[in-house]
Amino acid sequence: MSSSLPNREIALFVLGELGAATARIDTEIVAVECYRRYPSRFGLVKFPEYPDVDAVRVTLTDLRKPKYGSMVRGKKNDGWVLTPKGVTWYDENRERISSNIEQRHPLERRLPQGRALSREKISRVVTSRLLESKAYQKWKKRTEISIYDFFDAMRVDQLLPESKYQEILTNTLHAVHGNNELTEFVEQMHSLYGTRYRTYFVDEMRKEADR
After folding, report:
1. What's the longest Cα–Cα distance across the chain?
2. How many CB atoms neighbour CB 75 within 10 A?
3. Which residue ranges make up each domain of the chain?
4. Contact, 183 vs 176, CB < 8 A?
């Protein structure tokens, strides 16, 4: 039943829909989209025609805690991104949450123009993140990009399943589509570590042992 759907699950679903697997999403954007998806849950009490940004912030902060699975990273002013656990949860529960929300709030009751704006902003956020990353700065200088630089720029870690990494890579390339330089940069990072990020540290330890 829709009435039993926790706010945490709705917020996680919305983060996934907004592309938080590859980009940090602003608190306000999450709040607006939660409100569009489920206005009765995410509207202000005294002014229900407006989204309750603080309520969404509290929900996202809870999702950051180990008690709730450490599903997200981030904070109010820096934005929010799904952890590998959060990405897995989103993939496994996306259809269930979407169906639940659709039953309670038909599409025609929402404001679809916000989605396009959010996607445009996501592209800008991904582009900005990559341009500011250490990996990009090193790439421009033609110096060595470390595995840690790769992890930070791509928002992944060595525990992320390869299938999830491929989704992140695809989404990242989509976000920078049209920017030939960033496309080349992302593809270069993938060629360096994309096929060995999960085994990199084990391989390095073996090399040390063989010396």
Report:
1. 69
2. 13
3. 2-111, 133-210
4. yes
pLDDT digits (tens, 9 = 90+) for 66-119: 999 999 999 888 889 999 999 999 999 999 998 888 776 443 344 444 444 456
Q: Tell me: the pLDDT tens digits for 113-123? A: 444 445 676 78
- Contact of 189 with 153, CB cutoff 8 Å: yes
pTM (2 decimals)?
A: 0.53
H-run or E-run covering 100: helix 84-104
Pick the CATH number of 2-111 from 2.60.40, 2.30.170, 1.10.10, 3.30.980: 1.10.10
87 neighbors 63 (Cβ within 8 angstroms):
no
Contact 60, 27 (CB under 8 A): yes
Look up residue 175 and give its two tokens. 């976000």
DSSP character string of 118-167: HHHHHHHHHHHHHHHSHHHHHHHHT-PPPHHHHHHHHT--TTS-HHHHHH
How many degrees, rounded to 5, is the angle at CA 197 between CA 169 and CA 127?
35
End-to-end CA gap in the chain:
61
